[in-house]
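hey so i finally got around to running the thing on that chain from the lab meeting. sorry it took forever, my laptop kept dying and i had to restart like 3 times. anyway pasting the input first so we r on the same page abt which one it is
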Amino acid sequence: MTPLELFLIALAGLGAGAINSLVGSGTLITFPTLIAFGVPPVTATMSNAIGLVAGGVSGTWGYRKELRGQWPRLRWQIPASFVGALLGAWLLLHLPETVFETVVPVLLILALLLVVFQPKIQKWVLQRTGDDTDGDLGPVRTTLLIVGTFAVGIYGGYFTAAQGILLMGLFGALLQDHIQRQNAAKNLLSLIVNVVAASAYILVAFDRINWTVAALIAVGSLIGGWLGSHYGRRLSPVALRTVIVVVGLIGLYRLLA
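ok and heres what got predicted. didnt touch it at all, straight out
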C-alpha cells in the first residue's frame, strides 16, 4: 500500500472509533475502505475487528462515569454478551456469510424503528410490565433485557457492524435511563463482544490477519473513541438519537447497495 492509503486507513479508523462510541457502526466505514484498497474481504473483516478493539476501550473509558450505578443490570448483561459472542464466533466459523446477509438489514431496520419510536414503545412496555424503576426492572423486563443482549451478542460475534444500534434500540424500548447512560452500557457490552470476536480470529486465523492494517486502525480508533466519548457526552438525547438514526440509515444503504 502507498503512504496515502495507509494514512486514509488510519483516518478511517479514527472516524470508526468516534462513531462506535456514539452509535456503534464504525465497521461500515473501515471495512469498505479496506476493500477499496484491495484487502481481501475475509482478511479485512478480521483485521478490522482486531483494530477496532482499541477504540472500544477508549470509548468505554470515556463513558466510565455514566456506567456508575448500572451494575444491577450489567451483572446479567455482561455474561449474556460474552456467551452470545462466543456462539456468534462459532457460527462465523461454521456458517456461510449468505445466512446473515438477509438477516442483517432486517435487524438494522428493526433497531432504527426502536430508536425512532423509543418514547412510545417505552410507555407501552411500562404499561404491561409495571411502573418499576430501572434499579428494579422486574422479572419481565429483566428477562427481555438479558435475552435481547444475548441475541445481539450472537449477532456481534458473527458480524460486528451496527451491533451498537441494535443495543440502543433494545435499551430504548426497555429502560427509562438517560440515553447517555444507555450509550455507556452499549460501549461496554460492544467491547466485550468485539474482544471475543477478535480473539477468535487470532486463535483460528492468525496468519490471515493483516497486522499493519490492524495496527493503523487500532491507533486511529483509539483516538477516535476518546474524541467521540468526549464530545458525544455533550449531545442532548434528541441530538444523539438523530445521530444514531442518520448513521444507521447510511449503514443500511451500504449493506443493501
